[in-house]
Write a structure and sequence with these properties.
about 0% strand; elongated
Length: about 280
């Protein structure tokens, strides 16, 4: 029984350590292609660009080649980066956790001989691995959310670059384009994705807060209008003199030199209406 159980653990460990590639292999050699793009990162790029000032079309072509070359290099590094973090998440998480459980259980099994004890230890390993899978599934969801945000942010930055490259060098000089290339690079980082998600969440909350204010604010404001109006005209038509005096006295004491109707209906006095209801007081 013991060899079979240990073999089962070994299979579990190997399955946990087996890594799935997150993308198919490339046909070309990435290193060779990156080396061919080094010319677009040379120290004399800007001076070469400036030397073409008298030839606008050639200068534009050179600008575009430099930017496209840098975009391509960023893409190659980015794709490798995504594959690496995906591989690390899948390969190290469950596999490492399984290894710890395996060696711990193997140590215990070396001291027991009963079938019952062996199955008890097996159950512990399976339960532990399930916990590891749950934890790593959460990691994967977080990772995919970040990758999705990076893809979206990179696409936005790419649109800016493409629009700029369609224009003349006067409208979109090389230095401005290089700044936008840096934004494109930053969009493909985890820090950049986290910032974008935080910003997006903040904007969504601001929109939601505005809508909530519109809803609750309108309700509160309308409620206060109606409260003061009914206090002023209990039957909805006729002014009740004692209450009319109380409202006017309060308004005068608070420096409000407007008609009661204006005070009741204008949004400018919404906060003061709250005070009036509390201070007159109006039930």
């Amino acid at each position: 029984m013991r060899p079979i159980t240990l073999a089962l653990y070994a299979m579990l460990f190997l399955a946990g350590c087996a890594t799935m590639t997150s993308a198919p292999k490339r046909s070309g050699d990435v290193v060779t292609e990156l080396q061919s793009l080094e010319q677009y990162f040379a120290a004399n790029v800007i001076s070469t660009y400036d030397s073409l000032k008298t030839k606008p079309e050639e200068q534009k072509t050179y600008r575009n080649n430099v930017i496209f070359g840098r975009i391509r290099a960023i893409d190659l590094h980015y794709n490798q980066f995504i594959q690496d973090i995906s591989r690390e998440g899948k390969g190290m998480g469950i596999g490492t956790d399984s290894a710890v459980l395996l060696f711990s259980a193997a140590g215990t099994l070396s001291k027991v001989s009963s079938t019952k004890s062996i199955f008890a230890q097996s159950s512990g390993v399976v339960t532990g691995v399930k916990s590891s899978i749950d934890k790593n599934a959460y990691y994967d969801k977080t990772l995919y959310a970040l990758i999705s945000q990076m893809q979206a942010s990179r696409q936005e930055a790419l649109v800016t670059l493409y629009k700029g490259l369609e224009t003349s060098v006067d409208q979109y000089p090389l230095l401005k384009a290089l700044i936008d290339v840096e934004s494109y690079y930053q969009a493909g980082t985890i820090a950049g994705a986290a910032r974008a998600i935080t910003k997006s969440s903040g904007e969504q909350k601001a929109i939601a807060d505005t809508e909530m204010v519109k809803i609750t604010g309108k309700y509160i404001k309308d409620k206060e209008k109606e409260t003061i109006r009914l206090f002023w005209k209990p039957d909805g038509t006729t002014i009740y003199p004692p209450h009319d005096k109380k409202i006017k006295d309060w308004m005068r004491a608070n420096g409000l030199n407007v008609h009661i109707t204006t005070f009741i209906n204008s949004h400018v006095f919404s906060d003061l209406r709250v005070r009036a209801i509390n201070e007159i007081p109006i039930p």
